[in-house]
Every structure is written in C-alpha cells, then in structure tokens.
Specification:
The protein is built from six helices and 32 strands. The protein is an alpha+beta fold. The protein folds into two domains: 85 residues, no CATH class; 333 residues, Penicillin V Acylase, Chain A (4-Layer Sandwich), CATH 3.60.60. The chain has a twelve-stranded mixed beta sheet, with helices on one face. The protein is globular. The relative contact order is 0.18.
Amino acid sequence: MAVRAVRVGMPERVEEVSGARALVVTGETPEPRAMAARAAPVAATAVTKHGSTSCHVSRATNVTTIQVGACRVPRRVDMGGAGVMRVFRRFTLAFVAVAALALAAPEAAHACTRILWNDNNVAVLASRSADWLFPTEPELIASPRGMKRDGGFFDGQQQIPVNPARWTARHGSVAVSVFDSAVFDGMNERGLAVHGLWLYASDYGPRDPSRQGIRTTLWTQYLLDNAATVEEAIALQAGIQPVEVPMSFPEGSKAVIPISIAVEDSSGDSAIMQYIKGELVVYRGRDYRVLSNDPSYADSLAALNSYDFTNASRKTPLPGNTNGIDRFIRASYYANSLRDTSPKSVTGAVASLLSVARNVSPPVGAPLYGPGSQEATDWRTVSDLTNLVYYFEPTRRLAILKTDLKKLDFRAKAPLQTLDPLTKGFNGDVTGDYTPAKVAPFYGTASPASAPRTP
C-alpha cells in the first residue's frame, strides 16, 4: 500500500511512502531554538483507502491550511493579532488555549514524559518518566535474541483469536516490565529505544484481521525485538494492529491501556506514533524531542506554538502543573535550554537530562483528580543510545541503576534474565546482578525453546 507523506511546516512536498499505513509528518517542530518562529505541524491523517483518500484533521481554531491532494492540512495556528505581541499577551492567549485543551481530554492515570537530547557533543540520550496512581512493581528484563513471542497471549490464554502477531526476537534488549503484565520502556542492543506512553485519545479502529494483532502492552517489546532503526520501526507498523486487551492490576481491577509510541535510534532520528480516529499518524524527524500524554501530539504542538520563548529568562511564564500539556510545554522549554550547554562527559550529560526529567515529574503526593487522589512518578529511565547503557532511577529509594548492554549475553538460547530494581543495596552498575528468570514474564516459562512459537 502506498501512502502519501506530507512535510508540514516546511516547503510543501508530497512523496510516496511504501509499506506504511500512515501519514508520515517530517520536518521541524516548534521545539528548536526559535520555537515561536516555527509553524506547528497540526496535521492529522491522510490515508489511501480503496483507491480514494480520506482525511481527518485534528481539532483547532483559527487555523490556516494548505491543500495536499484531497486533504486540507493545517499549517499553523493563528492565535490572533499580528506582529510581535508582548509576553503577557502571549501568555494570556496560551493559557486560554491550554486550558481549553486540558478540559477537552480526560486526564491520564498513567502519565509519562519522554525527552530526547540528540544534539549534545557526547551521546544521544533519551529520558522517560513513568507516573502512576500507585507503585507499578517494575522489573528489569534482559531478553536474548531468539525469544518466541505471541502478541495476543496473556493471562494463560489467547486474547486475540484471529491472526495474533507471533515473532522471534531479532535483537536482544533490556526493558522495564510493570505489574508482570506489560512492557512500556526499553532499549535494544542495536541502539534503538522505545517508550510507550498512555494516550486516551488513541483509537486503533475496528479489528482488521488482515493485520497481525498485538496487544498494546506488548507493542513496545515488539519494536525492541524487531527494529534496529527508527525507519525500520515505522515500516513494521504496516503489518500489525495494536489491540486493547484488558490488563489486571494488583488491587483486582482491570483496564485497557491505550498508548502512543516514541522511538529514537543512535543516529538521533526520532518518531512519534499515535493512532488517531482509527489511523496511524507518524511524526518523524530529529526535532520531535518531547512527548507527554493527552491531548494528541498535534494538539500539544499547537499549544506549544502559542508560546514565544525568544530571549527567555527566569521571568518567562511557564505552566507548572502535572497535566500532559503543562509537562509537554515545560519539558520542551527546558530541553531547548539544554542545547545551550556543553557537557564534558556522558555522566554529566545524563545528570543534566535527568534534571529536566525530574522537573516534569509529579512528586510523591501530587494531587490528581482532587483531594484524596494522588499520582507520582514511580521511576525514570535514561537510554544512552551511543554507548548502549540503560539507566533506571526508582523514586521511592535513593539509587540510579546502570545496565551496560554490551556486557550482557544476548546470544540465542541464552537465558532470559531479570533484576528487581527495588532490591535494597542495588545501586550503580548492576549489569552483573541480573539472574536467570524462573518464570518468564507473560509466558509462564523462562526457556526460549518452550515459549509460544510461531507456527
């Protein structure tokens, strides 16, 4: 299937992309230095269906558009007024826009923020914070090549009866498992990192039996197992369809987990992948550095574009709460400031990136829906894609755990290994502390030979 890709916010160009069922938006975002001077790509989807083009455009007000085939693609958000506005006026307009967007989408119970720093002088780094209503029981899992996976098998039975995705891992990886049920973050031995972030706006469409179904909570692991680059990760989407399968939580409840994906590789390339109104939207380019939660990425970029951070100072107004929009704008602002620093070592760069990740992390006790409801960041990670080192920071004890993927045994038939990052005393380099798993997550066996196989 050939799908048209649009370069938005740059000189208009239409190109053909084979093997991907999505609109691929490439080019610059408002996140680089002169954020206010850049047009926010607010494009939604333009997908070829049965020989005709269908369009879905993300909601926005006062939007100018360009014509691309049968689709009118929003090119920039006009907040009203011409010329340079005073900072106070910009802030007032931005506050109104952000408030409207925040009211339009439900607040995610599982909030997260991903920040990519791909233009420093020492390493390509990506951080991720994971926020939840209660502890997520994280576990670090080192998976070798050759692991057999079933994208629909869960809770002892097949949850996707028609054409579930089945595959054999091509790459070894280290990932974070939560609730012994899902993988939402990790990095593989090829220098690809994948982050699954909660997105209520996700709509994966009706089940398409011609595409292999994979539960959303294993989508991250699928990409870690099969892709070495961002380009490969995007191409893989043509053959699969994420499916929401209920996941059990420790207190006995069940819920589906709607997620979007952020992925980056050792070259600094980046992509954001979201299913909106049943179609996949892919934003690809080195400048797509920050992702949070609801609303959609298009709406988050539109909100960011209403701020002018030119000549920023400590007096520049910033949103300070923990909702998705506030975190997205604040993370974009401080990630941009990182670019004016010159770290002298990888350790210094990791520490600098973590300082931004902590700034957008809800502290323990932060209110969620109101009095009596709380959320907090449960853990943070940093992926060093240049040196293949994965850092894990729990927030309920003082430690930063370091795993060197170059020193792990990822050979086929090597044992799957795990590590409990909450174990007292674990700190610093824990690469040698992984132990063979007695029970492999999601399968009931630690043996690659006896895990579910591809027919």
